[in-house]
Structure prediction request, 525 residues.
Amino acid sequence: MSPLSSSFLPLHGSPDAPASAPAAPATPPRELRSIPRVLAIAGSDPSGGAGIQADLKSIAANGGYGMAAITALTAQNTQGVRAVHVPPAEFLTAQLEAISEDISVDAVKIGMLGDSSVIAAVRSWLEKSRPGVVVLDPVMVATSGDRLLQEAAEAELRDLLPLADLVTPNLAELAMLLNEPQARDWETALDQGKRLASQTGTTVLVKGGHLDVDDCPDALVNTGGLLSQDVVVVGGERVNTRNSHGTGCSLSSAMATAQARLGDWEAALREVKPWLQGALRESGLLEVGSGNGPVHHFHHLKSSEVAWGEGQFAGALRAEAQADLDAIYRLEFIKGLAEGTLSEQHFGYYLAQDALYLNGYSRVLARAAAIAPSEAEQLFWARSAQQCLEVESELHRSWLSTRSVTVELGPVTKSYVDHLLAASVSGSYGVLVAAALPCFWLYAEVGAALHGEFLAAGAPAGHPYADWLRTYADEAFAAATQQAILFTDAAARSASEAERQAMTVAFRQSCRYEVDFFDAPRLHA
Prediction:
């Protein structure tokens, strides 16, 4: 009997690894919150465009609850900074302790610190409170060129960097932290980011906004293995506007908020960057000041009242997935599987990783069943999790047990499972099912295409993967895929605009992992 005769689950997705292989180790992810409590520690801007005022708007715009501890008072407007007053550091300590003794802080954004005593106060509080996410925007020089940190305090600020999870300097500040000239091109900026990351042991967000180039790239840089790769570049269009006041403040506080929700720096940047581009693009609507005006933090809310019709969100997701599907079809693994030229070594690696992936995916589906809003959805996700174990794992065990295959958790498998587990504890049913959907949807489409190619070639008897390719025609799985799409679309229709955005980000990231999963045998087998 075909082991897939009653299956309707995609290959990579279940909690129990094969009996012949150890279960994939899983570190419980830090608890994520759908509405994170984010504390901004920064200076005040009475014009509302930067500092604490921008932080609180940015936190709210990205789905968080904002709190503030004031480090400095400024007299400034859109044309520049006129004066700075730094209150006693003891009063800052009192603010911080009042908050942390009563409220759980999920993330901290640190901005303007002013002088050495303020830095010492923040350092002492960080070492005692140990917040889960710390983003440090090393405010030293404003975009206008005004100095916002006393020169004598620069060394203390450098010493504070290792306590942060993410550092977000502009190019001038990046150069000052390294005692080097400011980068004039993207490659130099990346090199400086790598050196700062290596020196501090933290992740550095290198920003290309101040470069004289046509596009506007940003990059997450970490040389200590905390990212999937040392440099993750996220491209973007340059928005031509003079209204950039508070852009750095807004970006860093948004990253702190998104990270507390998503638990993944790349996912956070890919969510925050389009939001900030929109805030820049729509900034002219505010008509604030005659100099460098502020960005429009709440530009995205104008679409929140638009009702999504049945199938519209699913259609938008399918459009998002097209580039990743095209990338999958171009992979040597897929071509070799269709033609029968794929090496058994690469196929064995793929199956072994599938078996390990099943461990985490089934738990994610079980979590979806636990928080689903209707009985029909609960039953569907629970059956999916069960089938994932009973049918797919058996298929993998039967193949792996007859061959010598080393089963060891690969980097792509780990990253994909970690992403799904993070979605499962996000508190959002919609985000969870959107993250799980590509394993149904993309796999179903790729499988149908492979099976079609196999039949078009006359189903050659000598094809080494003939039995495998025939399983791709499973009608039960195709029906289950359509049901998963319908449930995800329904979740989006009842979600807020912010939650729909988070669903889209989770779906896109899973699509990218699908591409990487199919390509992993070439890189790691």
Notes: Strands lie at 37-44, 65-77, 80-85, 107-110, 134-136, 166-167, 203-207, 218-221, 231-234. The longest strand covers residues 65-77. The radius of gyration is 25 Å. The chain has 17 helices and nine strands.
